[in-house]
Amino acid sequence: MAAALAGVRAVFPMPGHDRARESLKAVRESGVERVVLLSGASVPVGASRTR
Description:
Distance between the termini: 36 Å
Strand order of the largest sheet: 1-2
Strand content: 5-15%
Shape: globular
């Protein structure tokens, strides 16, 4: 995955897949600057809402 992330500055990962933890570790190690989760499913149950 390191080669695929070369030069990447931001990622929009799909949360909840089986290898999410490993994928995010590779993203972190490659030096990606921003990670943006776009799904409400990524919010834990009971999390407080802020406006």
